[in-house]
Amino acid sequence: QLQLAESGGGLVQAGDSLRLSCAASGRTFSRYAMGWFRQAPGKEREHVAATSANGGTTYYADSVKGRFTISRDNAKNTVYLQMNSLKPEDTAVYSCAAGWVVSTFTLPRMYDYWGQGTQVTVSS
For residue 27, is pLDDT > 90? Predict the structure, then answer.
């Protein structure tokens, strides 16, 4: 079982950068695929990025490709989301998720554990 805790959100201006962290408790973190999702007010949850258990495979939504980078440090039980060139439309609550068997990175139902989320607000 994993517990996930996000940090690093905040209020920034368009064009700024933020790095989100998701710290996991549990000895088997390195065996889980990890994903980042976001949800803006009045909108459905949207997949942002994901990485395989060993970090060898990554996946990005088209809306963030080239601006966001997902990475993980299995020694620290942490996954990161580096967000550059932020836009107002990136404003949302960002949540990390862990999945034991994830055949499709973009589907929330593939993930077994979720963090509480961290707010990211980008002003224009």
Answer: no
